[in-house]
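This entry is listed below:
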Amino acid sequence: QVQLVESGGGLVQSGGSLRLSCAASGLTFSSYAMGWFRQAPGKEREFAAAISWNNAYSYYADSVKGRFTISRDNTKNTVYLQIDSLKPEGTAVYYCAAVRSDGSSRYTLTRSNNYDYWGQGTQVTVSS
């Protein structure tokens, strides 16, 4: 059974930083590209960042570029999202997801309907 478990969310002041983690089990982690999506209250889920299986490619939404950094450790079956310079509009539930792909296609990784597995999400709340 595949499980993706996010952690690291919480309440942070505007301008602060957080590091989200997503631990994967039940799948061959290195066969999957990984992505982070977020869903703000009343809005649709949107792409934030994604990374290929071997760290060779990473992709970011324009709205987070320069402030978010995605990385992964295949020895720990974990993907990370470092979030810096948080803004109040960053308040959302952050989800990690896995897609069986080498991750070389930005088109594939930026679209949520391409992903095979999803975590339950972790809440990030940014106070102004």
Remarks:
- The longest helix spans residues 106-109.
- The CA atoms of residues 30 and 74 lie 6 Å apart.
